[in-house]
């Protein structure tokens, strides 16, 4: 059920992505008609939010069932006594799933309008309220307490402070303004705090603002799968090479029962600060975060054995997660992807630099997991083919759990190799739409199947370093 325009891409990026999803191998296997259908489905689905909100329970502090009960109570309050189930994922023991209700056809557009930036609009579609810095435009006489319709400026063309905007915008719901127009646009200092409390969003998802913050971590379903695939064990030394904001880092530490050592690297100081904050919030002590460029994490020449911080000696880690910087084309919802083709294709060399370092830092017999939140061949399956050819010491491994699809054809990998990869492909989702009545008609198994398919685009590969 499509309610938003399909994702808008620059012409060269659209051509590049079309070539990816209609490559010769795929065309031969699927046929031109089916390949085109899948590609159009991808473009349409990327502009819509996933069908479920996914949260990870911090099992270091509480049981999943206890937190599930608390979460159900909080959602019940937010939804004004309407009942939405909180589901446990059968293959991911610490993951809870909340169905997203929508698109809601009964929400009426109002005269008072507020325009927000595209990034803010995307967050609203996943349950967030509008914070003041995200507001670009508001109706001329808007006062605090007014009920307003909120629109996303998907093309970024609205001028800040405009009293009306007639350009391309998408209706994302209604809310109550916490500030007047004058307070928003005539403020002398930086804007902070909530700008609009969303009361009737087009897609109804729970707000997690300050809700059970030590017990829950908002995390997309495929991102949660990654930590299970790496399967860290208590007492091991783990490296998370590109760790911010720390979702996977804290998950790894939790799966290890906070026993051992998780080294988290990121080259941006503010992001490292966020990793430390998340570790402290979740009360995890085995995480050590450093502001450091992962491409330089290998010690050249002599180094100190057992050194706590980077750079590290070769073969220093039992397992390594390389959740690599990428073009991010799997993120949802996203109605406009503004990057140029040069930007999209700039990540492959960086990913390979990081990969080379990771292989050298991994102990013989150790596990390396490579992941991205993008959908291109060049950053995913092509990287796997390159790695297997470049590093004879690496062998591709099967993954557990394996709840996504297999790898995409087009990079010259064998059918057996593709089965060992895990690709979450938004083109596979069927946008059914969900309301409170239809929700009761779905079986548990059907809802889990929907959650596994209707999520962000993501890719996972697992390797072992043979002695």
Topology:
Elements: E1 8-9, H1 11-21, H2 24-30, H3 32-46, E2 52-57, H4 64-78, E3 87-88, E4 95-99, E5 113-117, H5 118-124, E6 130-131, E7 135-138, E8 147-153, E9 170-177, H6 181-185, E10 194-201, E11 216-218, H7 221-230, E12 237-240, H8 247-255, E13 261-266, H9 269-281, E14 287-291, E15 317-323, E16 336-337, H10 341-344, H11 347-361, E17 362-372, H12 381-390, E18 394-396, H13 415-420, E19 422-424, H14 436-441, H15 444-453, E20 458-465
Helix pairs in contact: 2-3, 7-8
Model description:
The protein is of the alpha/beta class. Helices cover 31% and strands 22% of the residues. The chain has 15 helices and 20 strands. The protein has helices at 11-21, 24-30, 32-46, 64-78, 118-124, 181-185, 221-230, 247-255, 269-281, 341-344, 347-361, 381-390, 415-420, 436-441, 444-453; strands spanning 8-9, 52-57, 87-88, 95-99, 113-117, 130-131, 135-138, 147-153, 170-177, 194-201, 216-218, 237-240, 261-266, 287-291, 317-323, 336-337, 362-372, 394-396, 422-424, 458-465. Strands 12, 13, 14, 15, 17, 18, 19 and 20 form an eight-stranded mixed sheet that branches. α7 packs across α8. It is globular. It starts with 7 loop residues before the first strand and ends with a strand. The model has no long low-confidence stretch (mean pLDDT 95).
